[in-house]
Amino acid sequence: MTRTERGALGALTGLSLGDALGMPTQSMSPAAIHETYGRVDTLRDAIADQPIAPGMPAGSVTDDTEQALIMAGLIIEGKGHIDPKEFAKRLLAWEDDMKSRGSLDLLGPSTKLALEQVRRGADIMTTGRTGTTNGAAMRVAPVGIANRPQDTRRLANRIYESCQVTHDTVAGFQSAALVATTVSLGLEGMTVRQALHESLRLVSAMETPGAWTPKASVPARARQSIRLSEEFSDEDDFEHHLIEDCGTSVEAKRSPFLTFVCIAVFVALTVVVSAAGHAFILTVQKWATWIFGALTLLVAIYLATTVDWSSFIGNAPGSASAFLIGVGTIAAGTGIGWVNSGADMARYQKTSVKSGPLILTAAAGAGIPLVVVIGLGSVLTAGNSTIASAADPVAAVRSALPAWVSIPYLIAAFAGLLMSNNLSVYSAGLTTITLGIRIPRVYAVVVDVVVTTCGALYFTLGSDGFYGPFVTFISLLAVPLSTWAGIFLSDMIFRKRYDSDGLLNLQADSPYWYWHGVNLPAIISWLVGMVVGFLFVTAQVSKNEVWFSGPLAGSFLGRNGLAWLVSLLLGGILYAILHLLSKDSTAVGGSGND
Predict the structure, then answer these.
(1) How many Å apart are CA 297 and CA 434, to the nearest integer?
(2) Is the dihedral of CA 74, 77, 78, 83 positive or negative?
(3) Which of 64, 83, 383, 578 gives the lowest tally of CB atoms within 10 Å of its CB?
(4) β-bridge partners, 515
(5) pLDDT for 37-67, tens place per residue?
(6) Phi and psi (nearest 5°) for 414?
(7) DSSP assignment, residue 411?
(8) How far, in whole angstroms, is CA 269 from its chain's centroid?
(9) How far, in Å, CA of 350 to CA of 339, rounded?
């Protein structure tokens, strides 16, 4: 066996062993890995609830090794070339084989998305233009084995052939090029450190193909990692700083600064519109409704004319449990989340407006776009299942639609959030007044902005995914709001009207002063309803991270996300009982029928 043959065998062996070594820890945090396995320095069985490879036996390889072997076969058949069409065909056949064996989650996000587009008949010259993860780098070793580093143009062309179907981006190419070039240099006899430094020099000088993405340079991030390895002699210190400073995401690069800038722009626009005053907000809301409503219709028309309706309608229905959870999540994130915004709606109307038309227009104004947007999301997800599990749903939507459609869609989504947010910020002063806190509105706005910014930073930068923390947040928020709604509805049943002057009177002579300004029956009902509701809640931000789980979370109501319904009914019924048991009806219901 020649030195080159021994090197090639060593590269492929190292790939498969490294793949098998990391298989049990995929998508797990360092803390979870340490708690579950301790230090992983030998082949281990994957635990039963491993996020990607549950229960896989020690020594099993993943799609990284499987795809590398597919690529090696194509290189041999193509005498050095990789036919992108044939590669796509082989990947689809491999995926079908894996599904038939019960393995559904082994593909990386970029490869999975690209193959779904190929199945729908998309041009394979375009399917890889959103692939920014490291899948191309994980399978590219055979390209480095088959090509010498002296002919960098040929090497770059072969690397691009390996990336094009699934990772046709600058980041996808650069990450694959670094691995392939390092392997090729290693076969020439260089040490690991020499090959790494020379690979960085060669890749940086290559003409970089692929779609541009607003991400940090992969070679720059690699240089940072190498510098860290030289600064720390202790292996544990190096691992810690590598994770903290460079990250271990499947993204070939990340842009936290750009994310922060976008959040800052959103918050700044919210404050500017809110500070401009009532008349300006009304004008902005009017024109925003027309403009961004039109953009939403544009997306709807595109989907209606391009979606595979037979496949969409023919999809197997979800379970009853999934349906209930979906209804609960939508209710928590929309109607329940807005339930305490009645004052916002009313304050922008003329005093002569009757309650019936006000309720109908508010319901229609909020409900129609809600149904349209949720419907669009359903159609998008039916055509591209990766959206439902994407860590970054904005990027997933962008990649699932052509640019001329995705840009209006995301602008409309951004504007819709901005319009609702500026109303809430403008009303921050009103909220503090209802709490009995008299402070200038500017201070209330500052608090609102700080909370909004911190929340956005956590969802986008602090968490490993979007959906888990977001659904947990709205599920937790739904419990106290639902209880409040039940009490409010119960209170309305016992009244014919409210004393408008009394509602604004915060002194002891107000008909709504109750006991030292506190409606004890309402507070008791709210606390009881909220505590009981949380007994049915599981606050789980990811598969491996559970903040807490109530003792009744495993019940039918808990499993199906109906804690909000428990809270609403319990709060309303308990308040009604306290009202009926009260000897003095004014203790609960104010002054008589007011």
Answers:
(1) 38
(2) negative
(3) 83
(4) 518
(5) 888 888 999 888 777 778 889 988 888 888 8
(6) -60, -45
(7) H
(8) 23
(9) 21
Instruction: Give tens-digit pLDDT for 324-342.
Output: 777 777 777 677 767 766 6
What superfamily would CATH give domain 63-221?
A: ADP-ribosylation/Crystallin J1 (1.10.4080.10)
Sequence-distant (≥ 6) Cβ neighbours of residue 524 within 8 angstroms: 574, 578
Q: Give the Cα separation of 57 and 34 in Å (integer).
A: 19
| Placement of tokens 């104010």 in the chain | 590
Could you give the CA distance from residue 13 to residue 7 in angstroms, rounded to a whole number?
Answer: 10
Mean pLDDT of 131-147: 84
Chain centroid offset of residue 384 CA: 15
d(CA 588, CA 584): 8
560 burial (CB, 10 Å; 0-12 / 13-18 / 19+) is buried
Q: What is the pLDDT of residue 217?
A: 77
487: confidence class by pLDDT, cuts 50, 70, 90: very high
172's CB contacts (< 8 A; 6+ apart) are 110, 128, 131, 132, 133, 135, 136, 163, 166, 210, 252
Is residue 53 within 8 Å of 101, Cβ to Cβ?
no
The span from the CA of 551 to the CA of 580, in Å, is: 31
Distance CA 556, CA 541 (A): 21
CA nearest 99: which of 87, 91, 110?
91
For the chain, where do the domains classified as CATH 1.10.4080.10 start and end? 63-221
> What does pLDDT average to over the chain?
77
Q: DSSP letter for 50, please.
A: -
Number of DSSP helices (H) and strands (E) in the chain, helices first: 28, 2
Nearest Cα neighbor of 249 from 151, 358, 407, 109 is 109
Q: What is the pLDDT of residues 472-482, one digit of tens each?
A: 888 888 899 89
Q: What is the pLDDT of residue 205?
A: 86
Cα–Cα nearest to 129, from 188, 169, 74: 169
CB 424 within 8 A of CB 341: yes
Predicted TM-score (pTM) of this structure: 0.55
